[in-house]
């Protein structure tokens, strides 16, 4: 898919990996719906940054754990830019609680923001793409924890594991519509979700030592994978996950 003048939604798009994805796609000529739930000023700043690149974007406040809000994002893409070609299910949260300590509310929130949002985001985006009739891309930002257990973060692992099967199953179901569904599984990335580790030198040194490439990723190093997956070069990739993890999943050091 040549990216110029395509239209993408990026959920959780005003910070971290989502922001880097919005900028990467905008640089390639994609018009962007930036979803956000907090920090409208950051969204405004990102819209200005995209405009400076010669791109177009609109910020839309939408809580992706609500189906009506996901529909609002697709409606904004269609009313603002006439269509939707790329859905990036990026929004995510974690609680860092063990299986023994996780409350029903924490469980529900992690599942809804990470997994329910990706499920219904896929469904609602795919319906719009099918209506248009010329295919599309759905890119789920999962994690190495779609596969790799992380004690003390059980609900998050469960949600990302669910996204793994969403990617594979929806990829098969939607293939006949030429809608490709792919996961991107980052390792540790320097973003707000990891502030507690980044602000603790001992924890950060332990993490860096466990990563074969010796450091966390920059958000742009995940965004460039998404840029590839959205484009022509990835036309035969579906129902699978690309891991961008600096080798950590296969590291013998461990955390
Ligand atoms: N940073 C990492 O090390 C890492 C590793 C693997 C996977 N990931 C995944 O990457 C994605 C982006 O995370 P990040 O690292 O950029 O952190 P981040 O905290 O900057 O991004 C998460 C975004 O999701 C948004 N969000 C939270 N709840 C929402 C809701 N209900 N509706 C809409 N948006 C909501 C947040 O406001 C934020 O913009 C997440 O899915 C995360 O699980 C991150």
TrEMBL record:
InterPro entries on file: NAD(P)-bd_dom_sf, SDR_fam
Record's keyword annotation contains Oxidoreductase: yes
Keyword Oxidoreductase in record: yes
MF GO annotations: oxidoreductase activity
Keywords (A to Z) from UniProt: Oxidoreductase
Family indicated by similarity: Belongs to the short-chain dehydrogenases/reductases (SDR) family.
Protein name, entry field: Sugar dehydrogenase
């Amino acid at each position: 898919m040549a990216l110029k003048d395509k239209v993408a939604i990026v959920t959780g798009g005003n910070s971290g990996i989502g922001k880097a994805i919005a900028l990467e796609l905008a640089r390639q000529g994609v018009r962007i719906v930036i979803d956000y739930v907090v920090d409208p000023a950051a969204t405004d700043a990102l819209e200005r940054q995209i405009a400076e690149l010669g791109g177009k974007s609109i910020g839309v406040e939408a809580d992706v754990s609500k189906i009506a809000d996901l529909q609002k994002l697709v409606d904004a893409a269609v009313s603002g830019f006439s269509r939707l070609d790329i859905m990036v299910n990026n929004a995510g949260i974690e609680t860092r609680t063990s299986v023994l300590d996780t409350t029903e509310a924490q469980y529900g929130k992690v599942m809804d923001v990470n997994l329910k949002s990706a499920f219904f985001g896929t469904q609602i985006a795919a319906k719009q793409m099918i209506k248009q009739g010329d295919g599309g891309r759905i890119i789920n930002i999962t994690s190495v924890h779609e596969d790799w257990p992380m004690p003390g973060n059980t609900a998050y692992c469960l949600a990302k594991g669910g996204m793994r099967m969403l990617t594979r199953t929806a990829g098969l179901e939607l293939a006949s519509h030429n809608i490709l569904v792919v996961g991107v599984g980052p390792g540790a990335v320097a973003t707000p979700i990891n502030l507690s580790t980044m602000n603790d030198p001992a924890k950060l040194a332990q993490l860096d030592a466990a990563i074969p490439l010796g450091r966390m990723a920059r958000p742009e190093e995940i965004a460039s994978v998404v840029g590839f997956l959205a484009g022509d070069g990835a036309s035969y990739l579906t129902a699978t996950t690309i891991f961008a993890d600096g080798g950590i999943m296969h590291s013998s050091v461990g955390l």
